[in-house]
Design goal:
The chain has 290 residues and is an alpha/beta fold. The chain has 2 domains: 2-215, Rossmann fold; 244-282, no CATH class. It has 7 helices and 11 strands. A 9-stranded mixed sheet has the order 9-8-7-10-6-1-4-5-11, with helices on both faces. A two-stranded antiparallel sheet has the order 2-3. α2 crosses α5 (189-195) and α3 crosses α4. It is elongated and about 105 Å long. 26% of the residues are buried.
């Protein structure tokens, strides 16, 4: 069984500082780490890997992302692939998805792809679904648990307000995992040292048979911002067949008929009870007994 794990190199939120002079994020002080949800995906892939299986990690990013892939190799991944090109800048999720899909095809499509559901920098959560669209595979997002059962994956996913849903998906498939399901195992020092000398496969656009035009998407241009148009109010028109005084009364009440009540403040209790019964009979709430 071949398992692919998509990893992302993200800034550590605890190291983000704002320059007091410029008001911009100080990029020189930011440290980078593996996306927490991707850590869970990698650990679960290593646990799921059978004795004859493989786990390959993929990442889209510049040369600094090699540190991320080396950590994954030290943790137990069998191979690592980094996708990047000098013509690329900070990629959007759709561009990242195209590059990942092309790299997966070049490497021979796996049986299962695990992704972190959300990243701590963008947090759009769209990569698993977009990747499934490009590979034409089924996808399940917001996964909290999964179990392999004879070529099928039984999954549990999170719904709104703490609810859970269970289902099955046939392999090959893509799973978008929630953050914090499990913690990535601690790599030993010998494995960390060995991972620094392991080969990391690097793909550019030429190796992926892509061109810059394949990654170019026209951006939306904002031409004008207009406030929402208020809804037209329906004006009440009095009944022209009524007298002047009745029309004035309708205008004063905006056509709403007031509810008139009657207070019984005189007569004996028996007389008041008879008046209530008479009212109920007149309004049809009671039927006259024969």
């Amino acid at each position: 069984m071949r398992i692919a794990v998509c990893l992302k190199y993200v800034p550590d939120p605890s190291t983000i500082e704002v320059d007091p002079l410029t008001g911009m994020i100080d990029a020189g002080r930011a440290l980078y780490m593996m996306n927490p949800a991707d850590e869970s995906a990698l650990e679960l892939a290593l646990r799921l890997r059978p004795p004859s299986g493989t786990v390959t990690v993929f990442s889209v990013g510049p040369v600094e992302a090699d540190h991320l892939l080396q950590d994954a190799l030290a943790a137990g991944a069998d191979a690592a692939v980094r996708v990047w090109d000098d013509s690329l800048n900070n990629t959007k999720p759709i561009v990242t998805t195209i590059l990942l899909a092309a790299a997966l095809r070049v490497q021979q499509l796996p049986d299962l792809v695990l992704c972190g559901g959300h990243s701590v920098d963008r947090g759009s959560g769209t990569v698993p679904a977009l990747l499934a669209e490009y590979l034409d595979w089924p996808v399940v997002t917001d996964v909290t648990q999964f179990e392999l059962q004879s070529g099928r994956m039984r999954v549990q996913r999170r719904l709104a307000r703490g609810a859970r849903a269970e289902g099955e998906v046939t392999l090959p498939a893509i799973l978008g995992l929630e953050t914090g399901l499990v913690h990535l195992r601690q790599a030993s020092l010998p494995n960390l040292m060995r991972a620094k000398h392991l080969l990391i496969t690097r793909y550019g656009l030429e190796e992926l048979d892509l061109s810059p035009q394949d990654l170019h998407f026209p951006a939306m241009t904002l031409h004008e911002v207009m406030p929402p148009r208020p809804r037209a109010r329906v004006m009440f028109t009095p009944d022209s067949t009524k007298s002047a005084s009745e029309r004035v009364a309708q205008i004063m009440s905006a056509g709403v008929s007031g509810k008139a009540g009657k207070i019984l403040d005189s007569g004996t209790p028996e007389q008041q009870a008879d008046a209530i019964l008479t009212f109920l009979l007149e309004q049809g709430f009671l039927e006259t007994r024969a």
